[in-house]
Request: fold
Amino acid sequence: MATDNRPLSPHLQVYRWQITMAMSILHRLTGVGLAVGALVLTYWLNAAAYGYDAFATAQSILGSWIGILLLIGWTFALFYHLCNGIRHLVWDAGRGFEISQARASGITVIVVSIVLTVLTWAVIWAG
Reply:
């Protein structure tokens, strides 16, 4: 049996970035972001249980511009992870594997996630 002088598996220099690749990475990152968001939610609820001073501190942190920015990011992460999870369920059913369908569903997930995030925060700020 002859041995070849080629790599056993492709490396990153071989691949071109595609929307499905970027969305897979973003799906994992939003999952981590949701876990961090759950810790922040736990902190906020604990602060509410500890009394007025602790809750006021938590509210001042989450109500600051950076806190609002993080909350908007966590909202996007929630909607992105949800929509992309639904996309994966469709794939699990054996549909949507064509390149054009995968690209269209990826763009749809991004657009729907942004729209849901904007609508959610529009309702929050209006109320």
Notes: DSSP finds four helices and no strands in the chain. The helical segments are 19-50, 52-62, 65-92, 99-126. The mean pLDDT is 93.
